[in-house]
User: Fold this.
Amino acid sequence: MSSPLPHERRVDPIARLVQALGRLPGIGEKSATRLAFFIMRQGRDFAQDLATALLEATERVGLCETCMNLTDELQCGICRDARRDPTVLCVVETVQDLRAIERSREFAGQYHVLHGTLAPLEGIGPDQLKVKELLVRLRAGGCEVKELILATNPSVEGEATALYLQKLLTPLGFEVTRIASGLPIGGDLEYADPATISRAIAGRRHM
Amino acid sequence: MRLLHAELTDFRNIACASLDPSPRFTALVGNNGQGKTNALEALYLVAALRPLRSVSRRALLRTGTELAKIELKVERRSTGLVHDLGVELTPTRRTLFKDGKKVDAGTFIGCAVAVSFTPDDLQLAKGSPDLRRKFLDRALLNVRPSYLTRALRYTKALKDRNRVLGEPNSDPVLDAYDEIIAHEGAAIMAARVRYVSELLPRVRDYFERIATPAPRLDLAYGARLRDMAGAEEPDLEAAFLAKLRARRPVDRARRTTSVGPHLDDLELALDGLPVKERASQGQHRALVLALKLAEITHLAAALGEAPLLLLDDMSSELDAHRSAQLFEAVGALDGQVILTSTEVPTALAAADLALYRVKAGNLERGPAAPAPV
Ligand SMILES: Nc1ncnc2c1ncn2[C@@H]1O[C@H](COP(=O)(O)OP(=O)(O)OP(=O)(O)O)[C@@H](O)[C@H]1O
Ligand SMILES: [Mg+2]
Ligand SMILES: [Zn+2]
Assistant:
C-alpha cells in the first residue's frame, strides 16, 4: 500500500495545472479549469506534444541580434531575407504587431521591435526599451536605412514613444514617418467611436 | 432621448428594482436615506460613465455583493432607434454593453444623454474652480462625445509628465509628453472657449428672467494662458507648448504641471465684479439655475431632442418661486424628467406623472394621485 510520506505535501495535480494555466494573460479561473479538463481528455500524447512545444519554444527562441524579433537562430528570417528593402525600417511596439503587419504582406522593408512603450508610471523609460539597440544598428557601418516608419499604437503611450523617437532620429539625418490612423476600412462609419471619427476628420485630405 | 425601461441590480442600497418612467415626469418619492438619489445616480452613470457623487467603485456595489448591474432601454427620438445599454460593475472592473455586445467607453458614451441637477450644483457659482471645470466637462461630453477621449488622453499624459518631471536627464521624454499635452489640451481649451461663448446669451437670458432686478452678467473662459484664450486651436497649441517648455524648470521643482486646462476656470462676473465678491445668496441661486437651464436648452438644440433630466431634491433646495421657474422652463422643453422628492409633487399634472415610492432600496409604483376617500 502506498501512502504519501508524512512530511510530503500532497498537491492535487489538476489543481496545479489549473493554477499554472491561470497565470496566462486573459485566462481566469473558469477558463483555466476548462482548459485543464480539455487537456486531461486529450490524453498523454497531446500533453507530451504541448509540453515539448512549450519547452522548445522557451529554450530555443531568443531575440534576433539585429531587429529584436523572436527567432531560434542568431538572426530572424526577415533580417536574413535578401529580397527585403534594407533602406526602410518599420519600428513596432511588440512582436505581435510585427506579425500583424507581416500578415498584410504590404510591407517589404525591415523591422525593429521596441518590446514596449514609454510608461513612466511603471518605471519604463527609453533605457528599458530596445532603443539603444536601434541606435547601434543605425550607426553601424554598412547600415543602409534611410527611412524609419514609426508604427507604434495611437494610444498616449504609443504616441509619446513615437514622438520621442522622432526627436531622436530626425537630427541624425533619417526620414521619419508615422503611420496614419483613422477609420478601419472593413468597418462601418456608423459603428466607429466618436474619437476615431474626430481623428479621421481632422486628418482629412484634399481630393 | 427617452428612457423606456430601467433595471437595477445590487447598485448602492438597491438590491433589485425596475422602473417604467412616464414620457414626461416621474417622481421618486420617499423619506431621507431610502435610495432616491441612488436610483437617479444609476441612470446618470449610464449616460455620463461616472457617478453623480465622486466615490470609489466599491461604494457603488451593494454592501456584501460583487456585481452591480444597470440595464436601460432608451429611444433616440432623432433616429427612432431603440438601444439596450448595460453597465456592469465589479470591485475592479466596469464592463459596458450596447445591444448585447461588449463595447468600449468611446463607443458607449453619447448613447444615452442625461443632465443632472443636484443640491451639489448649488455651489457652482461660488465654490472652487474645480466645480466649474467639472460643469464644463460634463456639459461638453454630452455635446461632443469625442471630448471624452480627449480628456482621458490629456489626463493620462499629464500624469505621465508629472512623473517624468522628477526624473533626471528626462528632457527628451518630456519633449514628447509636452507635445501630446499641448495637442489634446489645446483641443480641450478651444472646445471650452467655444462652449462658453455659445452658452453666454442663454445664461444671460435666463438670469434676467429669474433674478429681478438683474445686474449685468458676464461669463468668460479663464485660462492661465490668459493671452491665448479665444485663440484658434493651432495657435493655442503652439502657445501652450511654448508655455509648457518655459514652465519646465518651475514644474520640475514642484513636480507638477502649472499650466493647462486642468487649472482653468469659468469666470463669472456681475456688473464687472467677480461673482464671489459681489453676488447675494439669491443671486447665486439664480445664477446656478440660469447656468443649468442654459446647459439643458443648449444641449437640446445641439442634439435636436431634449436630454433626460435628472433632478435631485430640487424642490426642497429652491424656494417655491424658483422651483416654479425651473419646472416652467423644463416643461417647455417637452422632454423626460425624473425627479426625487420627499413629498409628492403637487405642481405637476397627475396625467403626466408616474409615481414611485422609494423605501429601503425598493421602488414601488404607486397611484399618481391619492385615492379618493
Ligand atoms: N454600497 C451601498 N450598499 C448599501 N447601502 C448603501 C450603499 N451606498 C449607500 N447606501 C445607503 O443608501 C442610503 C442613501 O440613499 P440615497 O442617498 O439614495 O438616499 P435618498 O433617498 O436620496 O435620501 P435623502 O432624501 O436624504 O437625499 C443610505 O442609507 C446609505 O447607507
Ligand atoms: Mg438624496
Ligand atoms: Zn531580425
